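thread: overnight batch results

M.L. [08:02]
morning all. the overnight job finished for the chain we discussed friday. pasting input first so we're all looking at the same thing
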Amino acid sequence: MIGRRTGRRATAPAGPPRARQTAPVPDSLDAELATLTDEEPAPAGTTALPAAAAEDGRQRPALDLLIWDAPNIDMTLSTVIGARPTAASRPRFDAIAAWFVEGAGDPTLPDAPDVEACVFANIPPQPGTLQRWVEALRGFGYSVFARPKSQPDDDIDQDMLDHIAVRQHSHRLRRLVVFSGDGRNFAEPLERLVREGVQVVVVAFSEVAGYAISSELLEFIDIEDVPGAFVEPLDRVRLDALPPDGAWLRPTRSLRDFVSSFNARKDR
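M.L. [08:03]
and the structure it wrote out:
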């Protein structure tokens, strides 16, 4: 079972069922857990997640689930390339969807898992072009959970963990692919899932995903190694893929600009 972090809980993402995709989720994790029987009490401080069969006695369908932490991936992309991302340097969600679904195996086999991909995003008061981005994601087959960001501490961390917990209850979670470099939010819950028999793959930038790279339980893939994830190679030098003769890593900002800002902070 996945532990619950202290904080608010949001409704889980939902959407119309499609072929070989998951059915709609209930309005909240509480609604889903209300179906538990008295013989399956929830331990204090955790979410009870029965692993065997559904309420009517049938086996829960297997599920491959993708979770995309949009704020984290966007922030870390800016960090590794040292600039604001452009259309050419942003991930291609269509190629990532194809890679994820291919990893689920032949959909015609009797034991083929359902597949579901969810993008979690914070939406500023002035969304600008984000509406077109969200609609494009939905057209690619992704569910989108959008939370308004009105305060600096508004985030989607707990929402992602909640949805994983909901899917553990509604399905037999077979493979979980998490696109995030946020070890603070994911390291402990994801390792717990591996111990329970779930294959967990973390996909992020190697520069900021030390929690997954160093883990003995989690699988790690650099996001740039996903086939077709980027239109062209990113302007970065990966320490895990250095050329034999070494490589120069140029600064991501001017030395004079840094010193100016450093002195300004020191003089306050």
